[in-house]
Specification:
Helix content is about 40%, strand content about 25%. The strands form seven sheets. Strands 3-2-1-4-9-10 form a six-stranded mixed sheet, with helices on both faces. Strands 11, 12, 13, 16, 23 and 24 form a six-stranded mixed sheet that branches. Strands 27-26-25-29-28 form a five-stranded antiparallel sheet, covered by helices on one side.
Length: about 675
């Protein structure tokens, strides 16, 4: 019998499942801690545990599929490699749109003359001399490049020339915007290219880790990766276009939720270590976001499930908001839970917590710890970053010892954003240990950390909680509140109710409805479809969420590994898009540039043939021997002097099917 191996790498855990291909039965599932910086350890541990439990010979593994939330988490937390953006034919105002400046975050920007117009005609010669001079002056820590040229979707010649030069001179990865989207909108394409370039190193590391362990185990099956819309793509495509894996984990979880629960119409809420992802399931399928995937503050041009992602998870940082009451807020940054840190560094965590508890005055660093994540000492650090990194070179330490002056605080923030350092502190996972809802890690360390945290003062001067158990319940209650808000925001948006969904979820009338207010007004508000709760920690939190929302809460068996399940039940779906425009003639814009035709029908036929050939070729590369071809064409016409006149047509060709399974 042939078996399918699904792997999902999240911020905290890496999951693996083994599925019998002929019977659709899960024969094994396993979890292992995700290990940074060496992902191979966690991936290998999860795969080995699942295979041992299943007692399946490695020669019977016919396909391996991988999903991940690492790209999503990196964007939510502002992490990723340092890159340079090469912008051809854009002015300053263009580059301030679509959140591009925030996405660059101070990384180098090189502006060049050049670019094309809407018809694909060159408006200025590409300035290669400036490119050569600017690239020579870049810091060595630039890990890759993003290239965007005006109207590159009409003619990509300048992006290609820039890419070829950069690859030849630097040998570093280069992302061209036209390769990620055929849609117009240069600033948004630039944003998408920047994020893609920033993620290449991270996803390449994950795929390399997974392939390396499969090779060690003698597993020769093809490795597929889940795309953000739930489709499967070959691993080599994911290496070049890691931006397509944002929302990969959530997309896999939606597929897994439908498969595991049998629900066809539901809200799927997947809580991980870093994020909570909510998606509406209709007729067994998730909706695709027509505006492009939005993750954190960024709206990209990547097609993905219409998912609302918020920085709320089991490992979210706990903050005390300013004010008299000492109200808590969770996220968006992920911390290493103190209870987990204590299992990995017991000789450090317990003595330091004991010393902090011996003093009545709360510690200035909040009892947090700095954990270095590099395999080799990092290069390209400025003086303050180097000072902090040098202190951490011998291993983890109290945050107050790693950062000794106020001016060093931005330095460690930069190290965190580059994925070089992680902070350990109080999280909902620690609260669950204190309340006895979880026993995975060190409960005593969690209790000490929450006791220390509870001593913090609110604006009134009072401690925020009398003891660790009270604080733990406050944290869990706040997680319930923020989860309810996220689900309500999704429901309001899906129902198209007028108003900003974030404000509606917190509106006094909404809260009164949830409280089942009974007075002169009688009010009730509830979610009208089942909620499918996913994630290892969902059983610990989601009972209260369902009760608050008056909804049926479904917690299916294997919900803790739903992403890994979804990774192996998906299909390959390769899409190609092109445009035909009436510009005095008929011009089709394909990936290799504009092509002229004598009439509309000839142009449309040629466009369909070209797109179909590319889509079928990509599907074949992904292992689909006989793909199903679908063609969608959006034609725009205008009435001129009483006659309909063709303006333009946007055509999409999709080649889809299950990848070939090597039956054994």
């Amino acid at each position: 019998m042939a078996y399918l191996l699904g792997v999902d790498t999240g911020g905290t855990y890496t999951d693996a499942v083994v599925l019998a291909e002929q019977t659709d039965v899960i024969v094994a599932s396993a979890k292992a801690l995700t290990t940074r910086p060496d992902l191979a350890i966690g991936v290998g541990n999860a795969i080995d545990a699942a295979l041992a439990q299943a007692s399946v010979p490695v020669c019977d593994i016919a396909m391996v599929s991988l999903s991940t939330t690492l790209a999503t988490n990196a964007l939510v937390e502002g992490q990723g490699g340092r890159i340079a953006l090469i912008a051809v034919g854009f002015d300053d105002s263009d580059l301030q749109r679509s959140g591009l400046a925030d996405a660059l975050g101070g990384d180098p920007l090189i502006r060049l003359s050049g670019g094309h117009d809407h018809a694909g005609v060159e408006v200025a010669q590409l300035n290669m001399r400036t490119l050569q001079d600017e690239v020579k002056s870049l810091d060595v820590d630039v890990s890759g490049f993003a290239v965007v040229s005006s109207f590159a979707t009409r003619n990509p010649a300048h992006e290609r020339a820039t890419r070829d030069y950069l690859r030849k001179m630097t040998g570093k990865p280069v992302t061209c915007s036209y390769e990620l989207s055929q849609a117009l909108g240069g600033p948004k394409r630039a944003l998408t290219a920047v994020l893609n370039a920033r993620l290449i190193g991270l996803i390449d590391q994950l795929i390399t880790a997974c392939k390396g362990h499969l090779h060690q185990r003698g597993i020769t099956a093809n490795l597929m990766v889940v795309r953000g819309d739930g489709a499967l793509i070959p691993a080599d495509v994911a290496r070049d276009k890691p931006i397509e894996t944002i929302l990969s984990g959530p997309a896999a979880s939606v597929a897994g939720a439908s498969w595991l629960s049998g629900e066809t119409d539901a809200l799927v809420s997947d809580i991980g270590g870093t994020t909570t992802d909510v998606c509406l399931l209709r007729d067994g399928r998730p909706m695709i976001d027509p505006q492009g995937a939005r993750v954190g503050p960024f709206r990209t041009m990547v097609e993905a499930v219409a998912m609302r992602t918020t920085g709320l998870g089991g490992d979210s940082e706990v903050h005390v908001q300013d004010g008299l009451e000492g109200v808590l807020l969770l996220g968006p940054r992920r911390l290493m839970p103190i209870s987990l840190a204590a299992t990995q560094f017991p000789e450090l965590i317990h003595p330091e917590l004991d010393r902090a508890l011996a003093h009545d005055i709360p510690a200035q660093d909040g009892g947090q710890f700095a954990i270095p994540l590099w395999s080799n000492f990092p290069n390209g650090l400025d003086d303050r970053e180097l000072m902090v990194a040098t202190r951490l070179s011998d291993g983890p330490m109290r945050l107050g010892k790693a950062v000794q002056t106020r001016v060093e605080s931005p330095a460690i923030t930069r190290l965190i954003n580059r994925g070089l350092v992680m902070i350990a502190g109080v999280t909902p996972s620690d609260a669950s240990h204190v309340l006895g809802r979880s026993d995975s890690w060190d409960r005593d360390a969690a209790d000490k950390a929450l006791t220390l945290f509870a001593r913090r003062r609110a604006g009134s001067g009072q401690c925020i909680a009398p003891h660790s158990e009270a604080l733990a319940q406050m944290i869990v209650d706040q997680l319930t509140t923020q989860t309810v808000n996220c689900l309500l925001e999704t429901a309001f948006a899906e129902d198209g109710i007028a108003g900003e969904s974030t404000n509606l979820a917190r509106h006094p009338l909404t809260l009164a409805g949830l409280d089942r207010h009974q007075g002169v007004l009688q009010m009730q508000l509830s979610i009208g479809v089942p909620i499918v709760g996913l994630g290892a920690s969902a059983p610990a939190y989601y009972g209260a969420v369902g009760k608050r929302l008056g909804a049926k809460m479904v917690l299916p068996k294997h919900a803790d590994v739903a992403n890994a399940v979804g990774a192996v039940v998906g299909q390959v779906r390769m899409q190609e898009t092109g445009t035909l425009i009436n510009d005095g003639g008929f011009t089709a814009y394909l990936s290799d540039g504009p092509h002229r035709f004598a009439d509309k029908d000839t142009g449309l036929a040629a466009l369909e043939r070209a797109l179909t050939d590319v889509a079928k070729s990509k599907a074949a590369t992904a292992g689909v021997t006989d793909p199903r071809i679908t063609v969608a064409c959006d034609v725009k016409e205008a009435e001129i002097e009483g006659q309909n006149t063709f303006i333009e047509a946007t055509m999409r060709v999709t080649a889809s099917g299950r990848p070939r399974i090597a039956h054994v």
